[in-house]
């Protein structure tokens, strides 16, 4: 871009193409270059770009009313979206508190958990446990819960010391064991941590059912979440599923936690909820958690000017209806199986690929300098950055994800295309990805 720019972009020393328009899985810049959106942006554009039905809904809603203040009015789109989400969510997670971003959704869950225990007469339960290699958002409360070493670093003095247990990261088991001989030590660690800190101080445990940005689609071993749920129940600790990335059909089920039939107390959703057509997220709360609040203070002490915004919730409702109409959850499962199969084939061909994982259309590829002992590349060699640039030059967008327990990032990417992707388009995606991996491997002399 030649003109002076005063827009603060993520990296101030980097050139960004100017997006012009999008159609389905493709984005086009203002020079006419085509990109396959292989990561749905930040795992967000689930129904693809440029869906005219959604544009029509936006226009019609704007003509009616775009904003009402939530303390003065409710609105039909907000009511209808809450009703629809109730049908999507597992069990008795029936209530929705609408916010604008995933960070606000997890932070609201934190506050609701603390408030719940206050209403129950247990005000000392204020700590939230979480895992290393997790990302729950950028605001200080959400960042406090995030086990993302890089993003925490500058603000550590301001953060609560919440992350405390190791992730269920079998490829690099934190306990140097293999499943099932490990007997789920990663889940058991939650119990020892609760006992050490004291259950009287702990309000909730939060986890991404499938770890996204800070692990690249890490799927826990069988039995993990069942054990987590049992431990939470035993010690009266709420279980919050952060499904901001993995929810709304992304992994081939409505919510990723459904893969294990485990019932969370609260679920945070965002991203795919509007497929990127409007900023919207929600803290979904179960009847059990709402009950003492309904009969107690009758007010959740949180909220924003744009909470439950009619324009955003109209979009959310239209996106969920679009997903139902086109059976995109099922499609995510089917196309995800195909994508994983193709990525596994690449792993056979390119020793630079150490691991391939994921569920549905949330998949991750981790790179290693030595496939046998899984040695990552030195942190100065930002492998994912080089690969992402190569992919982008060739017209494919993939998403950087860190991997490695000590916060050593940069060795993994997420591939998570819109759920509307066709088989031929998936082949086109893989072809470009393979070309980039091949070049990378030659350059790094693996
Ligand atoms: N939780 C998870 C699992 C996420 O992946 C993200 C964003 O990547 C967030 C929370 C934060 O969402 P947002 O960026 O919308 O604030």
Your description of this structure?
With 446 residues, this protein is of the alpha/beta class. The protein has two domains: 19-50 and 327-444, Aspartate Aminotransferase, domain 1, CATH 3.90.1150; 54-325, Aspartate Aminotransferase, domain 2. 36% of the residues lie in helices and 15% in strands. The chain has helices at 40-43, 52-64, 76-88, 102-119, 140-145, 149-152, 185-197, 224-234, 287-295, 310-325, 328-349, 383-393, 423-444; strands at 19-23, 26-29, 34-36, 93-99, 127-131, 163-165, 202-207, 238-242, 266-269, 281-286, 353-359, 362-367, 399-401, 412-415. Strands 4-10-9-8-7-5-6 form a seven-stranded mixed β-sheet, sandwiched between helices. It has a four-stranded antiparallel β-sheet with strand order 11-12-14-13. α4 (102-119) crosses α9 (287-295) and α11 runs parallel beside α13 (423-444). The chain is globular and about 65 Å long. It starts with 18 loop residues before the first strand and ends with a helix. The model has no long low-confidence stretch (mean pLDDT 95). It binds pyridoxal-5'-phosphate. The site of pyridoxal-5'-phosphate has 16 residues, from α4. Pyridoxal-5'-phosphate (PLP) is lined by residues 42, 101-103, 106, 135-138, 208, 212-213, 242, 244-245, 270.
**Sheet with most strands:** 7 strands, mixed
Q: State the fourth-level CATH superfamily of the largest domain.
A: Type I PLP-dependent aspartate aminotransferase-like (Major domain)
Q: From the alpha-carbon coordinates, what is the Rg to the nearest angstrom?
A: 21 Å
CATH first level of the largest domain: Alpha Beta
Number of separate domains: 2
The assigned CATH architecture of the largest domain is 3-Layer(aba) Sandwich
Strand pairing plus helix content: what structural class?
alpha/beta
Number of strands: 14
* SSE run: EEEHHHEHEHHEHEHEEEHHHEEHEEH
Strand arrangement across the biggest beta sheet: 4-10-9-8-7-5-6
Low-confidence stretches: none
Family: Belongs to the class-III pyridoxal-phosphate-dependent aminotransferase family.
Keywords: Aminotransferase, Pyridoxal phosphate, Transferase
GO molecular function, one term: pyridoxal phosphate binding
Protein name: Aspartate aminotransferase family protein
